[in-house]
Amino acid sequence: MCGLPKAGRQIKAVFLGGDFFAEESAVSDIEGSLRWHSSEFEQIHSTLEILYAKREEGLAFLPIENVCEVISKAVESARAISQDSNTSYGCFVNPKIGDAEPVHT
Predict the structure, then answer these.
(1) CA dist., res. 71 & res. 99, Å (int)
(2) What is the pTM of this model?
(3) Domain spans of the chain?
(4) What does the alpha-carbon distance between residue 88 and residue 95 come to, in Å, rounded to a whole number?
(5) What dotted CATH number matches 2-99?
């Protein structure tokens, strides 16, 4: 399972959940390395390759292909959700036009 809130084209955070045969700190390193990271697949894969080279032993039983796949699916899901929502205002607010108070002059 992967939770992935986005801000525009940036990944705000990655939350990986499940039963992994990997060191907990190595999974935390994956999540941390993708915080405020580009959501482009090539850049995600490149970052993970560097991390996997550093944490080879801790991530030996968590294939990089599987991690890339689940993150890519989460990015696509987040894109679809943001396209379905109303016009956004700012990073954290999505007001509805009908909720606005009328302005009297």
Answers:
(1) 35
(2) 0.71
(3) 2-99
(4) 7
(5) 3.30.390
